[in-house]
UniProtKB/TrEMBL annotation:
GO terms for biological process: peptide transport; transmembrane transport. InterPro entries: AAA+_ATPase, ABC_transp_ATP-bind, ABC_transporter-like_ATP-bd, ABC_transporter-like_CS, Oligopep_ABC_C, P-loop_NTPase. It comes from Pseudarthrobacter chlorophenolicus (strain ATCC 700700 / DSM 12829 / CIP 107037 / JCM 12360 / KCTC 9906 / NCIMB 13794 / A6). SMART domains: AAA (SM00382). This is ABC transporter related. Residues 1-19, 350-362 have a biased composition (Low complexity). It comes from the Bacteria. PANTHER family: TRANSPORT ATP-BINDING PROTEIN (PTHR43776).
Length: 377
């Protein structure tokens, strides 16, 4: 099955099932920002990779974070995983502000709540060790091993079974496994810790198209059967639609649109989301894909650190952060942050009162670069 044409099977896709959710999100980021110093030791220049990101993931929920290269997805993942210290904002795991709790680095408690699965299944497993070693080590570090060798072995076999691998592969070396099998081992290693949240940064992008669907199905099963919450980072909208309950769109370090995946991808409101959606082959939209138009838009987007869709130089985009507007019915939890957004008559679309950015001036930080030619969406 082609990855780009994944469809959602009736009744088993996003939003269909999962355990009961409580009000406290499993993971929440509030006002997250990250700037990197650039230009050498004495330079005061910085690149603003993230700005004012608010995102919440419920229990047993998968949220996809989509955006093109350089939009800030990995920086967000690295900040949430405590591999990078955010410049501002907070990260709450199960309601607890982890930046206050573990001020300098991630604690073992944090690691046992949140695990990461990386893009590269080839680089994340040391070739000198057998598969059993990686899983045993995770169990031991987090005190999840059994009281006896028999119990530990049973747990290892159970983990292998959960991710769809044969128990005899515990004795294999990474090079003896396929890419898809290695990514399953990486997921088993994360599961050994019994985390509440898995942060998966492009977990299928280096895999053969034919095995991607298996890994996506495994992730879906872990959500449905174990209630694990996931932040699924990808540039592939088709897999976001297939897997994620909700999708958030990142552009130039900011979330510009978010909603139930099926609704957001069927009715993209932000011109950047429309641009991304236009690249997904879809027989239902035959004829709507204009490669020249898309190339123009993409060029402008890639050349900009500000908003490339601001057609009017006096327009407020570069000066004022747009407020969030609800898109369509409230149950779709769909909002967009764009000055150009005009709701269809009678389709909802008021500014969201709770938006912390409502009426706020643009935050301090490096000004958006002036791109030579702005495009209107
Ligand atoms: N360590 C760093 N120092 C300076 N700038 C950085 C650093 N890490 C990221 N950036 C910048 O931050 C911005 C966001 O990068 P990031 O890697 O998060 O994007 P991304 O959406 O994950 O892209 P990709 O899909 O290619 O990984 C980019 O402009 C990038 O150049």
């Amino acid at each position: 099955m082609s990855h780009s044409t994944l469809s959602t099977p009736t009744g088993s896709g996003p939003s269909s099932s999962g355990p009961a959710r409580t009000d406290t999100p499993a993971l929440e980021v509030r006002g997250l920002g990250k700037s990197f110093p650039v230009g050498g030791l004495f330079s005061r220049d910085s690149v603003r990779a993230l700005h004012g990101v608010d995102l919440a993931i419920g229990r047993g929920e998968i949220v996809a974070l989509v955006g093109e290269s350089g939009s800030g997805k990995s920086t967000l993942a690295r900040c949430v995983a405590r591999l990078e210290r955010p410049s501002e904002g907070s990260i709450l795991l199960d309601g607890v502000d982890v930046l206050k709790r573990d001020r300098f680095q991630a604690s073992r408690a944090f690691r046992s709540q949140l695990q990461m699965v990386f893009q590269d299944p080839f680089g994340s497993l040391n070739p000198a060790h057998r598969i059993g070693h990686f899983l045993r080590r995770s169990l031991a570090i987090h005190g999840k091993g059994g009281r006896s060798e028999t119990e530990t072995q049973a747990r290892l076999e159970q983990l292998m079974d959960t991710v769809g691998l044969q128990a005899d592969m515990l004795d294999s070396y990474p090079h003896e496994l396929s890419g898809g099998q290695r990514q399953r081992v990486a997921i088993a290693r994360a599961l050994a810790v019994e985390p509440q949240v898995i942060l998966a940064d492009e977990p299928t992008s280096m895999l053969d198209v034919s095995v991607r669907i298996g890994v996506l199905n495994l992730m879906r099963r872990l959500r449905d059967e174990q209630g694990i919450s996931m932040l699924y980072i990808t540039h592939d909208l088709a897999s976001a639609r297939y897997l994620a309950d909700r999708t958030a769109v990142m552009f130039a370090g900011e979330l510009v649109e978010e909603g139930e995946s099926l609704d957001l991808l069927a009715n993209p409101a932000h011109p950047y989301t429309q641009l991304l959606v236009s690249a997904v082959p879809d027989p239902a939209r035959a004829g709507s894909y204009d490669p020249v138009r898309r190339a123009e838009l993409r060029q402008a987007v890639m050349a900009s650190t500000g908003c490339a869709f601001d057609g009017d130089p006096d327009q407020a985009c570069s000066a004022d952060r747009p407020v969030r507007h609800q898109v369509g019915a409230p149950e779709n939890r769909h909002w967009v942050r764009c000055h150009l957004y005009r709701p269809r008559a009678g389709a909802g679309g008021h500014a969201l009162a709770a938006d912390p950015a409502a009426g706020a001036p643009a935050p301090a930080g490096p000004p958006p670069s002036n791109i030579s030619r702005k495009v209107s969406a």
